[in-house]
Amino acid sequence: MVDTMFEMPLDPAGVPRGRAMIERAEWAARAFATYDAATVQRIVDATAQAGAARSKEFAEWAVRETGYGVAEHKLLKNLACSTGIAAKYRASDYIDVVIDSSDKMVEVPRPAGVVLALTPSTNPVATVMFKIMLALLTRNAIVISPHPYAKAVCAEAARTMAAAAVAAGAPDGCIQVVEEPSIPLINALMTDPRTDVILATGGTPMVRAAYRSGNPAIGVGPGNVPVLVDATADLNATAQRIVESKSFDNSILCTNESVLIVEESAAAALLNAMTRAGAHLLSDDERDRVRDLVFPEGHFDPKWVGKDATAIAAAANVRVNARTKILVAPFDLVVPEEPLAHEKLCPVLGLVRVPNVSRGIDAAQAVLRITGQGHSAAIHSSNPQTIMAFSAAVRVLRVSVNVGNSLGASGIETNLAPTMTIGTGFLGRSSVGENLEPKHLINWTRIAYNTDALVPMADFAGLTPWHTPTAAVPAYPRASNDLTAAPLVPSTVAMSNDAPDELRDEIRRLIIEELNAIVRG
Fold first, then answer.
1. Helix, coil or strand: residue 417
2. Rounded Cα distance, 249 and 345, in Å
3. How many CB atoms lie within 10 A of CB 501?
4. Cβ–Cβ under 8 Å, residues 120 and 420
């Protein structure tokens, strides 16, 4: 079934609206880039607190609007991505000048400028909050382009944080949000040469479109997390962690475990413990029914994204306990033809038994060859030799040890940078290999002196090019949706209307295709 209500509007005003938003953001970014550290910290704290104050409301709203996930888990993510991010980076400095007298060098931080943030429907509010916080910490202006399926809650979250930021002294327009996404508007934002960097979190086609826009982009690749459990693991603790991680927000996070690989000698005890923790081990017949439901004709059906395990079981005519959190689906071979070896953004966990650790590592490598290279993997073991061998062999850039991977790889339950955007590096065809954090939104201008000892370095102590605003920055002179007023200063920048037709067509195709897939059936 194709619902035209979910198709993107033609929106003939989209291009001028996009131009107006970027122009306003550019104006705000120029002002914001001159602020000192104390003023920025005040803005960051006020904005984080405003987002946190409505986190529970936004969590419940996101579940209602998208139909995905668990409200109490979204609340945890919203808090982690608002006041949690503010606390995490309180001691970090992305603003002050750094003086290195020994190397005769002075480093001056330079914000990116205008950040365009594409956000997904799976982690909508948390990603909006996370990217806003990173932009404020680094004195950037940000324009949020939410997924159409989560546009209402994302717009309200962005408006709430924008109002708090401006009230605390930020330039008007440093946080903007697309209220009604459309193909021309998204295209105009992505291709406008005044967009300094695109943060693309979403499906692979959208990320690739961002990279093709002609502007710098930081995108991410898909996950497909293998988790290896060997015989030295604390099996009761491991079982609890895996079930809680796989069921967290009904597996919406791309860091959720996809395929459980367990050493045969530990399999029975682990599965018994997982059953006690809320897992249901599917029989072969039950597995086939769940596989056919979730992967009709071998392709994952997006209608099951973020749904409860009990709802999936009922639809597959599988009887489970009402307290069931995840469905465990055993299969034999990790091959591309096996749907259960692919990424599953729902509480269905593939299961493979292996005779030893070496074969387990082989299986994990096979999972990642199907998809997920560069993303993440997990291991539960007390043997450092095994952990090292596993981590060196799997082609990922983060390995979680003895922790649920959903919150482990995302930095919420480990000391990795807390993030809603997982860089997959060269392995995953991404420009960043770390968890996205504030440092990725600044460059440094380096003032470098002659190394000759006879050439002295001047004394830069106490010097700073930034200032504390003595008065509120005037409101931007033209509202971003006022298309009749003339710009304050005529623009000479070539606009996005000249973007390649194939890019506009690709954006239109991938958004409509995803939305239709979500609502079909």
1. coil
2. 10
3. 7
4. no
Nearest to 419 by CA among 117, 80, 93: 80
The catalytic position among 81, 174, 254, 346 is 254
Chain mean position to CA 298:
27
Whether 464 has a pLDDT exceeding 80, the answer reads yes
Decide: 255 and 222 in contact? Cβ < 8 Å.
no
Question: Measuring CA to CA, which residue among 401, 398, 402 is closest to residue 410?
Answer: 398
Predicted confidence at residue 431, as pLDDT, reads: 87
Tokens matching residue 127: 């990603």
Q: Mean of the pLDDT values across residues 211-236?
A: 93
Q: pLDDT per residue over 29-76, tens digit each? A: 999 999 999 999 999 999 999 999 999 999 999 999 999 999 999 999
Average pLDDT of the segment spanning 200-224? 85
pLDDT greater than 60 at residue 3: no
3-state secondary structure of 371: coil
514 pLDDT exceeds 70? no
* DSSP alpha helix (H) spans, 118-249: 124-137, 151-167, 183-191, 204-211, 235-247
**DSSP at 91:** T
Distance CA 251, CA 11 (A): 35
Q: Give pLDDT, residue 430.
A: 87
- Name the nearest CA neighbour of 170 among 270, 308, 45: 45
Cα Rg of the chain, angstroms: 24
| Contact of 227 with 328, CB cutoff 8 Å | no
CA distance 57 to 34: 35
Identify the DSSP state of 374.
Answer: B
- Predicted pLDDT of residue 501: 57
Going along the chain from its start, the domains and CATH numbers come out as: 13-220+436-449 (3.40.605.10), 225-408 (3.40.309.10)
What is the end-to-end Cα distance of the chain in Å, rounded? 6
Q: What is the pLDDT, as a whole number, of residue 513?
A: 55
User: Residue type at 505?
Assistant: D
What confidence tens digit (pLDDT) does each residue in 5-30 have?
345 566 777 888 999 999 999 999 99
- Pairing state of beta strands 105-111 and 98-100? antiparallel
> For residue 283, what is the DSSP state?
P
Q: Using alpha carbons, list the distances in angstroms from residue 249 to 128, 301, 346.
A: 17, 18, 9
The whole-angstrom separation of Cα 460 and Cα 475 is 34
Cα–Cα distances in Å, from 62 out to 52, 59, 411, 507? 15, 5, 22, 24
Name the nearest CA neighbour of 343 among 302, 308, 313, 399.
302
Task: List the Cα angle 156/161/164 in 5-degree steps.
Answer: 125
Give pLDDT, residue 474: 66
pLDDT of residue 14: 81
- Longest Cα–Cα distance in the chain: 83
Q: What's at 21, amino acid-wise?
A: M
Concerning whether 254 is annotated as a catalytic residue, the answer is yes
* 270-306 pLDDT per residue, tens: 999 999 999 999 999 999 999 999 999 999 999 999 9
